[in-house]
């Protein structure tokens, strides 16, 4: 009975995780390697024949290599957005933590509002059209940075709170200016939370479907998640190609998450425990 109490919940959690995450992924793999006739049955069965290369080539070549274009667009958007998020969020978190003034509670309010309030799509599109950045890559980059900054600022601020102020004072005594203090003293010490922000935001932005759909319409602006929307209309009865496309855009974020899983947990827990 003691063994059941000790390991029962762990076994149940593992079983639920397998059902929720592993089983659907296996189903995607099976569907992606089947032929068109067998995939139309939409069942969890072993493939009678494997068409990995054939399905892969058809998906890559579909619509004038749209998936390649989508990968390039998603990579540019993700890398640029994450780089801006890390620098800007770390700077904001540093200022909020080190310089507490009368406007700090107001800034905290707007940061929390950014986490809780849903985005206003129509006014945002109108504003982007007036600024001339609607349907542009850099316009979507600004959207991704704005929508994800609140979470990143909170992580950086909590972690910076664990860094002693004496380090700031010693650097200032040695002649360091504010930007030099941040980039040469503080930023190198933010490696755990920086890795956390990079991995979490990379996966989130790369997998984003809603924002590119609203703010970056157009075939030439397709991102990897929008290729699912496009392929579904073309391959409405060719589920093998649709699931091969799903597999190709699922593997990169999955690999990133598996490799950096420990860093994510360490970065998020370090600020919470020490703060």
UniProtKB/TrEMBL annotation:
Subcellular location: Cell membrane
Chain segments annotated as transmembrane: 7-33, 71-94, 106-125, 137-160, 181-206, 239-260
Transmembrane listed as a keyword: yes
Name of a matching Pfam family: BPD_transp_1
GO cellular component, one term: plasma membrane
Domain ABC transmembrane type-1: 71-260
GO BP term, example: transmembrane transport
InterPro entries registered for this protein in UniProt: MetI-like (IPR000515), MetI-like_sf (IPR035906)
Chief localisation class: membrane
Topology with respect to the bilayer: Multi-pass membrane protein
Protein name (Swiss-Prot/TrEMBL): Transporter
The family this protein is said to belong to: Belongs to the binding-protein-dependent transport system permease family.
Keywords: Cell membrane, Membrane, Transmembrane, Transmembrane helix, Transport
Organism expressing this protein natively: Devosia pacifica
């Amino acid at each position: 009975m003691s063994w059941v109490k000790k390991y029962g919940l762990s076994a149940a959690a593992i079983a639920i995780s397998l059902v929720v995450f592993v089983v659907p992924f296996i189903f995607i793999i099976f569907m992606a390697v089947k032929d068109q006739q067998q995939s139309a049955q939409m069942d969890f069965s072993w493939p009678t024949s494997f068409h990995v290369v054939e399905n892969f080539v058809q998906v890559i070549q579909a619509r004038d290599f749209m998936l390649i274009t989508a990968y390039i667009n998603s990579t540019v958007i993700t890398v640029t957005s994450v780089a801006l998020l890390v620098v800007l969020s770390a700077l904001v978190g540093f200022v909020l933590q080190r310089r507490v003034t009368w406007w700090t509670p107001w800034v905290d309010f707007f940061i929390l509002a950014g986490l809780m309030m849903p985005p206003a799509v129509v006014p945002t599109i109108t504003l982007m059209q007036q600024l001339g950045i609607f349907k542009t890559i850099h316009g979507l980059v600004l959207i991704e940075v704005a929508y994800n900054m609140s979470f990143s600022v909170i992580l950086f601020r909590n972690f910076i709170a664990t860094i002693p102020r004496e380090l700031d004072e010693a650097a200032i005594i040695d002649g360091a200016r504010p930007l030099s203090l941040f980039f040469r003293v503080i930023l190198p010490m933010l490696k755990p939370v920086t890795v956390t922000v990079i991995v979490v935001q990379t996966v989130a932005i790369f997998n984003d479907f809603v924002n590119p759909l609203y703010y970056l319409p157009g075939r030439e602006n397709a991102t990897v998640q929008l290729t699912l929307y496009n392929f579904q209309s073309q391959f409405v009865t060719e589920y093998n190609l649709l699931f091969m496309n799903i597999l190709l855009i699922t593997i990169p974020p999955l690999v990133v998450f598996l490799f950096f899983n420990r860093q994510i947990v360490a970065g998020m827990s370090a600020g919470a425990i020490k703060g």
